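User: Can you recover a sequence for this backbone? Please restate the input before giving your answer.

Assistant: Of course. Working from this structure:
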């Protein structure tokens, strides 16, 4: 399902349009109904002529409620931009368009409302005015649908245009790392705490244990039940509006701007480096001086900003900044937000997160968002921690199946062990003097004649008892239905695994060559089925059983050979070429 937000100036008919499309009044508060003014976020959904479902987030258009508007557009797929033919382009039309552009929204359509109140000549003038204002933005060339919602004029055409918009808007990606920015919190009678939001990044299931991060302490919670558009679901994937009944926390302890995540998958950052794109309308240099607030996810947070480099970014330019948050947030490179200066009451520009755990001083860093830079700066990074720092897979050197390491750091570590071993002379080097990185690379020095003998690290001729080990031969003889290691010395088995002569996945032992052959066979299958293949298809191609194919496919996913998309596997970045 796609999530579409309204945008546009106050009183241009956004809420009326949503009601005409869905039959649901998105204005939830009595004050909104009495004043005829949207104050907070509204939600509705409908089924389009093609059968596709679409969720709408209706945002307020008044400048006083811009904070609420920003809370609604942090996780949308596309926009329905609304301009009234009676008034034309207005200040909040411009600000909403710039905000959507800065957040990276690239899909949308335009609705010219209230056309029943103007004559045809005025309508044409209004159309040209809108086209002129969206020129050079992501809405340039977007279809403009004239609509008069009270009479129903244009509603059928709008529904067809929305169908087309949904068809060309990419679906949310399942990265196996769910995050839900909370936009509503309330207590439901008989149920307890309920939160709503747009789910991104991965799937969640009922009875799953998660954590709420943001304001206050980290709260461990259990998902009691899941609903989407009033229907109870056992689980939901990314790109859907969901309501979650949470156990283990009071609704009074949560608020908009908190995020629901799997705690082990996220680094909770209190500062990050980012690129700041300053709006051309800003008529002053941006520096560290200002009453700044950052809208990111569904929240808005007071922040301190330091401009990297020469300390100033002029209007219309881009530069790097270090943002200091007042609390911990689960962020990743690629996340986008809006920076505002409430002292000046203006939107400054958009930020794109590049590094959620900056190590270098602000005076000497140039962030670029790459995983290579993260590893290069840290030299050695545990793979689990690297996963929390970056959404990009690491394709460089991995040591001991645990460490991502830069090439320079890797070779310096090897050279240091060689030198220290030679300096130790015939007595050899005490391995207790090695740090964990040095111990991790010791197997890579075997070919140079450096190994542990008599409890010391020495050079010399090495007779490797693991070469031509009978268990490795047995694994090669039955590559896709390998025998278990019954009867194999446990110490030898650990060494075989450590030396990568045997690979373990989900408790099943494989020869590395068998997994390489399985990867090549999977690449051939994917070449014939570019939209994806099932686990059963891989199993049949390899002539194996469920017991063995699940660990094989799990190893594929973990090592970038394949990626999971629903029940299918699609090519990963390290899939062999065929």
């Amino acid at each position: 399902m796609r999530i579409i937000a309204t945008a546009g100036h106050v009183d241009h008919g956004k809420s009326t349009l949503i009601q005409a499309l869905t039959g649901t009044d998105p204005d939830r508060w009595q004050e909104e109904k009495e004043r005829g003014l949207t104050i907070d976020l509204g939600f509705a959904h409908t089924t389009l002529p093609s059968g596709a479902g679409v969720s709408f987030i209706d945002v307020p258009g008044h400048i006083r409620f811009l904070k609420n508007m920003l809370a609604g557009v942090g996780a949308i797929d596309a926009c329905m931009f609304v301009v009234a033919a009676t008034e034309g382009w207005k200040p909040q039309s411009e600000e909403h368009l710039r905000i959507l552009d800065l957040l990276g929204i690239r899909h949308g359509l335009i609705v010219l409302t209230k056309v029943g109140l103007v004559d045809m000549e005025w309508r044409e003038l209004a159309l040209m005015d809108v086209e002129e204002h969206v020129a050079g933005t992501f809405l340039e060339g977007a279809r403009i649908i004239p609509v008069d919602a009270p009479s129903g004029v244009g509603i059928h055409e709008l529904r067809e245009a929305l169908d087309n918009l949904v068809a060309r808007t990419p679906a949310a990606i399942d990265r196996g790392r769910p995050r839900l920015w909370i936009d509503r919190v309330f207590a439901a009678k008989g149920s307890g705490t309920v939160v709503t939001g747009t789910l991104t990044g991965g799937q969640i299931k009922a009875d799953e244990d998660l954590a709420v991060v943001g304001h206050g302490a980290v709260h461990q919670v259990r998902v009691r039940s899941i609903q989407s558009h009033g229907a109870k679901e056992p689980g939901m994937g990314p790109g859907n509006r969901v309501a979650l009944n949470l156990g283990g926390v009071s609704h009074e302890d949560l608020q908009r701007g908190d995020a629901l995540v799997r705690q082990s998958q996220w680094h909770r950052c209190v500062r990050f480096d980012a690129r700041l794109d300053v709006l051309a309308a800003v008529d002053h240099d941006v520096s560290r001086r200002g009453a700044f607030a950052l809208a990111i996810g569904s929240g808005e947070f007071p922040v301190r900003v330091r401009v990297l480099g020469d300390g100033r970014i002029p209007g219309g330019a881009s530069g790097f900044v270090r943002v200091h948050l007042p609390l911990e947030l689960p962020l990743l490179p690629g996340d986008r937000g809006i920076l505002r200066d409430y002292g000046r009451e203006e939107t400054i520009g958009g930020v794109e997160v590049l590094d959620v755990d900056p190590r270098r001083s602000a005076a000497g860093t140039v962030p670029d968002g790459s995983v290579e830079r993260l590893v290069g700066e840290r030299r050695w990074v545990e793979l689990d921690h690297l996963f929390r720092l970056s959404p990009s897979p690491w394709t460089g050197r991995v040591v001991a199946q645990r460490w991502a390491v830069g090439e320079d750091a890797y070779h310096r570590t090897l050279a240091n062990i060689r030198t220290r071993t030679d300096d130790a002379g015939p007595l050899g080097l005490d391995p207790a003097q090695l740090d964990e990185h040095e111990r991790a690379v010791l197997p890579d020095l075997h070919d140079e004649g450096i190994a542990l003998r008599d409890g010391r690290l020495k050079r010399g001729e090495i007779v490797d008892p693991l070469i031509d080990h009978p268990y490795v031969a047995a694994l090669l003889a039955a590559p896709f239905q390998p025998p278990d290691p019954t009867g194999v010395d446990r110490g030898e088995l650990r060494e075989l695994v450590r030396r990568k002569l045997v690979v373990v996945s989900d408790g099943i032992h494989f020869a590395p060559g068998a997994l390489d052959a399985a990867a090549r066979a999977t690449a051939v299958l994917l070449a014939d089925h570019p939209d994806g293949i099932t686990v059963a298809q891989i199993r049949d191609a390899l002539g194996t059983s469920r017991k063995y194919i699940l660990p094989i496919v799990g190893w594929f996913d973990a090592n970038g050979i394949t990626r999971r998309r629903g029940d299918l596997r699609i090519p990963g970045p390290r899939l062999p070429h065929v």
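That completes the design. The first helix runs from residue 14 to 22.
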